[in-house]
Write a structure and sequence with these properties.
single chain; mainly beta; Methylamine Dehydrogenase, Chain H; five-stranded mixed beta sheet; four-stranded antiparallel beta sheet; 1 helix; 36 strands
């Protein structure tokens, strides 16, 4: 065969190969799926079980409660907020939101400092050095605070004075924020295990081993723990004995990315989670079936918030999205000033989220119109106790006195509410 003809044949073959690969990538990465009413339970709405003590919302764990709905309802809090009542300089990076219980705010800092602040003044009450850098939120159960470290330990501290009570070592760093389920502390580790540790004995009740790291925080609802793995699988695990009920692979063939760093949120009988393949997934909590898929244009590290039959989540593409929780239809979108990695919080009818560009936005959940913004942001985000709003900036924590005339609502209204999370 003449050399010119061979070259032309090679070029044609290469073109076909490139088109084939491109088509496979498009098939794997470009197809969305619309949901229907199957496994959509309106009785399992978020926010209705807000844990409160008296008139105070208890934000005792990452995402407010073990289901991680990130929704505080009936508080009466409305932006815009005036200047912060107080601000506290951490001295280093803040990458996770605080826990707020009773009269204290508990803030982890990247340098390993764990600090208790007076919630109304921002004064330091105690400061302790954890076993390693801190990239997850604390969990408060009764008078004990549990904090995971990137050194690989889960530590228990007294909320009163910060005294270390005990520690449990894993074989890898921990970025997963722990939750409390039936007397056990549940969290994931880079050692590829999901742990349930008995809070009273400090012994392992059970573990589940994945094919990659468990980096995000697990969620719990209806007797089942849901945890995303960095291999793209979402696990459903029976809380009592650690039996795997199902695992669903979210990563599609021929697509790039697909790791689950985003922590799942459980509401309406579904599990909502973002992926580094750029998509947001809704998965049936009982069946493990994928109910809908929606694409963004970049990684979704942020964890979704769910309220009023909508799912709110930001993407690295710089856009904040509101999806219909049943169908996945896009309700609205908002173009922010930079990439979004921090998780959203819904307080009444406003959703708040931070950007890596250093802005925190407050948008109407109805149509995405701007209700408030401030030039402090990062990944920590915003939480509330029903009286104050606490914003974790890049290195500072701000306390805004909210102008509220209502009392927070919820089914639990006793001082032991935090112990039942």
């Amino acid at each position: 065969m003449p050399s010119g003809l061979r070259l032309a044949s090679f070029g044609a073959g290469l073109t076909v190969l490139v088109l084939l690969i491109g088509g496979l990538i498009w098939y794997g990465a470009g197809r969305d799926r619309r949901g229907d009413s199957s496994e959509f339970d309106t009785k399992a709405a978020p926010g209705t079980g807000s844990a409160v003590a008296g008139d105070q919302v208890l934000w005792a764990t990452f995402g407010r409660n073990a289901a991680h709905d990130r929704f505080a309802s009936g508080t009466g809090i409305q932006p815009p907020f005036a200047n912060a009542e107080w601000d506290w300089d951490s001295g280093d990076t803040i990458s996770s939101p605080p826990a707020v219980v009773r009269d204290r705010v508990f803030q982890p800092v990247e340098d390993g400092s764990l600090v208790a602040l007076d919630r109304t003044t921002g004064d330091e009450l105690w400061r302790e050095r954890a076993a390693g850098p801190l990239a997850s939120s604390p969990l408060v159960v009764g008078n004990v605070l549990y904090q995971a470290t990137k050194e690989g330990s889960l530590q228990a501290f007294s909320t009163e004075d910060g005294e270390e009570l005990w520690r449990f070592a894993t074989e890898g760093p921990i970025e997963s924020s722990p939750i409390h389920v039936g007397g056990r502390i549940v969290f994931g580790s880079h050692d590829r295990k999901l742990y349930a540790v008995d809070a009273a004995t400090q012994r392992v009740a059970w573990t589940v081993r994945g094919d990659a790291e468990f980096k995000g925080s697990p969620a719990f609802a209806g007797g089942t723990i849901y945890a995303g793995n960095y291999d793209g699988n979402l696990y459903a695990v029976r809380a009592t004995d650690g039996a795997v009920l199902w695992k669903t692979q979210t990563r599609r063939d021929f697509s790039f990315g697909g790791a689950l760093f985003s922590s799942p949120t459980v509401a309406y009988g579904r599990v909502f989670v973002g992926s580094t393949d750029g998509r947001v997934y809704a998965i049936g909590a009982k069946s493990g079936d994928i109910k809908w898929v929606k694409s963004t244009d970049d990684w979704v590290y942020a964890s979704p918030a769910v309220a009023n039959r909508m799912v709110f989540v930001g993407s690295y593409d710089g856009i904040f999205y509101a999806f219909d929780a049943e169908t996945g239809d896009e309700e609205w979108r908002f173009e922010a000033d930079d990439r979004i990695a921090g998780s959203a919080t819904v307080i009444d009818d406003v959703v708040y989220f931070p950007t890596l560009g250093g802005t925190t936005w407050g948008l109407s959940i109805k149509d995405g119109t701007v209700r408030w913004s401030t030039d402090e942001g990062g990944t920590g985000g915003l939480v509330t106790d029903g009286e104050f709003v606490y914003l974790a900036g890049a290195k500072q924590l701000f306390g805004y006195a909210a102008d509220s005339t209502k009392k927070p609502t919820g089914v639990q209204r006793s001082g032991k509410a935090s112990e039942r999370q």
